[in-house]
Design a protein that fits this description.
Elements: E1 12-17, H1 20-29, E2 42-47, E3 74-76
Parallel strand pairs: 1-3
Antiparallel strand pairs: 1-2
Length: about 80
Amino acid sequence: MSAPSAGNAQPWHFVIIRERTILDAVGSFHPYARMINKAPVAILVCADHPVRAAPVGYPAEVKRPSQRYDEARIHHDRW
């Protein structure tokens, strides 16, 4: 949640999945998530809208960490 977002929209939501049936279901249909079948928990990262680009690199400036944690964006087993 501390990562910058375009226009400070903060479109992300996180679904913490602990329910075994849900973990197994995700592993059965997602080709790159087969390892989830052995995991006790998973975090599904979602957004309010499609993500078009994810630049990776180092910032040209030094900023202090921001406090943007929002408990309302953490969901357990379902969104």
